[in-house]
Automatic annotation (TrEMBL):
Coiled coil: none annotated. This is DNA primase/polymerase bifunctional N-terminal domain-containing protein. Residues 9-162 form the DNA primase/polymerase bifunctional N-terminal domain. SUPFAM superfamilies: Prim-pol domain. The lineage of its organism: Bacteria, Bacillati, Actinomycetota, Actinomycetes, Streptosporangiales. CDD domains: Prim_Pol (cd04859). It comes from the Bacteria.
């Protein structure tokens, strides 16, 4: 009977990926087989077979990034979890349908996308990690602390990529250069919603990414007390046209108002 861990490793290799053998019930690569960790991941079925012949209980992992998959890791930890950030990204349209979703032992997920050469990344305060070039993840049926990784869903014909840069900009954006002046104006003039500074930042935004920029700015304005009617001042500061019209902009600020108020309820 074929070892299920080896079978998973051979499936990774058949998909064009590279497999690793990790410690039984653990996440670290077994150093006697992989002295350089993920750099020694293999696409050789015979080598993988030898690994599991010597260590049949070893967990199985896959090197992430091209030519395999990029993976969004939603963590669940004692000090918080990544589900609120995941739901914000989904509501903003920044999470396309993944090729697969695996459940992790902590109660989180690994969501897989078409592999790229993007670098790995982490948003620690949001409990999200991005595994791409140079990274690896454990896959089913690996077990950590007695709990297995599981397959939740597959969409083998999906061809979506995840833009990690857009995710980072949305969840943890750099402070807009003019926003600080908006805050200062708010303190001196009594304007409470920061719209002047945000509008100044938005004024120079052109495609691509201006819809995401508008959504982000509208969310920040709502958090500072802006009404739905006041939000329309934001998109009037933008360069409309070229496929981005007033109706689309209006829908974006309405979505931002609804989503931000739901989060704070």
């Amino acid at each position: 009977m074929t070892n299920p861990m080896l079978a998973a490793a051979l499936a990774i290799i058949a998909q064009g990926g590279r497999a690793l053998i990790c410690e039984p019930d653990g996440k670290a690569p077994i150093t006697r087989f992989l002295p350089n960790g993920v750099l020694n991941a293999t696409n050789n079925p015979e080598l993988a077979s030898r690994w599991w012949r010597h260590e049949p209980d070893g967990n199985v992992a896959a090197a992430t990034g091209h030519p395999w998959y990029d993976v969004l890791d939603v963590d669940v930890k004692p000090d918080g979890n990544g589900w609120p950030a995941f739901n914000r990204l989904k509501a903003a349209g920044l999470l396309p349908a993944p090729l697969f979703v695996n459940g992790t032992p902590s109660g989180g997920i690994h969501a897989g996308y078409v592999g790229t050469n993007q670098a790995c990344g982490s948003l620690r305060k949001h409990k999200l990690d991005f595994k791409a070039a140079g990274g690896y993840i454990l896959v089913p049926p690996s077990v950590v602390e007695g709990r297995p990784y599981t397959l939740i869903s597959e969409r083998p014909h999906a061809r979506n990529q995840l833009n990690w840069s857009a995710v980072r900009q949305f969840l943890d954006p750099p402070k807009p250069r003019d926003y600080s002046s908006g805050v200062s104006n708010r303190r001196s003039t009594g304007v409470s919603n920061g719209i002047p500074g945000l509008a100044a930042w938005l004024a120079g935004k052109t495609k691509p990414g201006r819809n995401q920029a508008l959504f982000w700015a509208a969310c920040r304005a709502v958090e500072n007390g802006a009404t739905e009617q006041e939000l329309h001042e934001l998109y009037r500061s933008m360069q409309l046209g070229n496929g981005f019209d007033e109706r689309q902009a209006a829908r974006t600020v309405v979505d931002a108002f609804r989503i931000t108020n739901r989060r704070s309820a």
